[in-house]
Model the fold of this input.
Amino acid sequence: MNLKEVNTVKDLQTIVSHYKLNGKTIGFVPTMGFLHQGHMSLVQKAKSQSDIVITSIYINPTQFNDLNDFNNYPKDLERDKELLNDNECDYVFIPNQSEIESIPSKSIQLDGLDKVMEGRYRPGHFQGVVEVVYRLFEACKPDIAFFGEKDFQQLMVIQKMVEKLNLPIQIEGVPIVRESNGLAMSSRNVRLSPKAREKAGAIYTALAEYKLKSKQDVTKRLEKIGFELEYLEEYNFNSSKRLFVAGTYEGVRLIDNVEL
Ligand code: AMP
Done:
């Protein structure tokens, strides 16, 4: 296996400074593990845009507002490492909580971006996200960091954080990777029954039809498959207008979005 595992901030910083002294660029992919092709598309993009790719796996307790969700978050580190190795990731950073917390955090004003949509339904979520991503950035000092459009609001929040703190890091968004029925790939999808996982493809179909139908039609269609809708909302980030959806299906929280 060419992939190398690092567990401490000190080791990671030593490795990164060695590469930087040699003029190499660092691409960083933060994840919570239980990796799938969505994560791999971030790794592949990182590989194409930087010399060295570092993926982190850390399930951040402070971004979960539901203890059950945190405790049941799926894990399979061995499989994750195999996937990363197959996709030519160079390093996997797997810190424990005290390693992460050894890095001072910063509080960051998100100008209300953390109060809408995901922020409204998951109070404190984005503060937890920026806190951990800031710490991971401090540990890894990447030149470029990659985030999926699956969590589009998170991508915007991270961009805002980087602007506010004037961090010398380029943030790159990566398009959503979907299962064959259209369902956005997510580590949480394994918690759905096979039947529900198949039917959940209708979430994407409904979003894709939004332009042709009314919001009411789309809501009805989602409710018909038993999707318990939290929000279905148009939102403008910079110049990009998108439609966002979140809700639970068989008790599993799912989110998705499409460009309008
Ligand atoms: P997570 O492990 O869920 O925290 O995700 C880690 C990163 O992978 C985040 O930037 C996500 O937006 C991204 N990601 C997760 N699923 C997908 C997907 N289906 N397509 C593209 N990016 C994804």
Observations:
- The longest strand covers residues 228-237.
- The chain has a mean pLDDT of 96.
- Residues 31-32, 38-39, 41-42, 147-148, 150-151, 174, 176-177, 184-187 surround adenosine monophosphate (CB under 6 Å).
